Amino acid sequence: MTVDVEEYFQVEAFANQVSVSSWGSFKSRLEGQIDILLEVFEHHDVKATFFTLGWVAKSCPNVIKKIVNQGHELASHGFMHQHITRQSQEEFRQDIQSAKKILEDVSGSAVLGFRAPCFSIRHDNDWAHEEIALAGYHYSSSSYPINHDLYGVPNAPSTPYRLGNGLLEIPVTTCKLMGKTLPAGGGGYFRLLPYAFFKFLLNKSLLSGGPANFYTHPWEFDPEQPRLPGDFKSQFRHNVNQKHAANKLRRLCNDFSWGTMQECYLGGDEYPLFDTWLKAANAKSTN
Ligand SMILES: [Zn+2]
Predict the structure, then answer these.
(1) CATH number at residue 128
(2) pLDDT digits (tens, 9 = 90+) for 10-66
(3) Distance 128 CA to ligand 1 centre (A)
């Protein structure tokens, strides 16, 4: 169970309309949103991994303390939520190193995991996984092996694998149905699809070997958040079914057992090895 912790005004869908320099003018809604998630997880005895922005650790340190005080794992979502394809190698290095440092300073605990904003590690930025390992992270959950207009590396493996530099990459869960690879790992699809169908996809993905890697965001549980300017597609993806998201999450927590990334994946299992990210990213096309 994973949560990508960012403010509603920091999402990629509105990045063209909401500049980084304007973030300070928005009122934070994060604490109330996190409280909803923490209450659901506590009620269902679920421990989760919270991939959190360094920016959040700086602006809302009390949110970090709430997360770790309830026994959840704190991990990194970078500092400034910038798409990797818009960063130089040097900018990316500084971003993920400073995020790790502030998250560890504020929480007092080691941060082992990293998730790239918008799963933005693509075929053409092989240096990203090198930098993630060099920054001291043990695992990454930055690839989504599907076809999508904003992200996705469709030919990457759909189950965890280790890279030559020792980093473990843990893909978001997908499901094969009638020859197509469908997203089964959460996000907007979880709000959009009827719960019974999402549960069917998740169960089907578990048949080919678990655990499942599910992700959500705090802003998905806040139908009262201010509307941001954007095109219809972005508005729809961001806002659809937020009103019912908490109830769906309760059902998901009730119907499956969930743990942190460390609990589920770092227990000494052996994973397939790829020398480089490029080889992993093309794994299915060379099979
Ligand atoms: Zn994000």
Answers:
(1) 3.20.20.370
(2) 988 888 888 899 998 999 999 999 999 999 999 999 999 999 999 999 999 999 999
(3) 17
| Structural domain includes residue 76 | yes
Ligand 1 centre from 55 Cα, in Å?
Answer: 12
Gap between the Cα atoms of 249 and 251, Å rounded? 5
> How many angstroms does the Cα of residue 77 sit away from the middle of ligand 1?
7
CA distances for 72 relative to 54, 87, 105, 121, 175, angstroms = 17, 30, 16, 26, 27
Distance of CA 233 to the CA centre of its chain: 21
CA of 192 to the centre of ligand 1 (A): 18
Predicted TM-score (pTM) of this structure: 0.95
Q: How far away, in angstroms, is 191 Cα from ligand 1 center?
A: 16
Crossing angle (nearest 10°) for helices 89-107 and 61-69 = 60
Helices (H), the chain: 30-43, 54-59, 61-69, 89-107, 127-134, 188-192, 195-207, 232-239, 242-255, 261-265, 277-281, 283-286
Is residue 24 domain-resident? no
User: What's the pLDDT tens digit per position in 87-128?
Assistant: 999 999 999 999 999 999 999 999 999 999 999 998 877 899
Report the separation in Å between the CA atom of 167 and the middle of ligand 1, taken as the mean of its atom positions: 21
Q: At what angle do helices 61-69 and 30-43 cross, to 10 degrees?
A: 0
Q: How far apart are CA 208 and CA 120, in angstroms?
A: 26
Q: How far apart are CA 91 and CA 227, in angstroms?
A: 31
Which position has the token pair 């003018």? 25
The domain total for the chain is 1
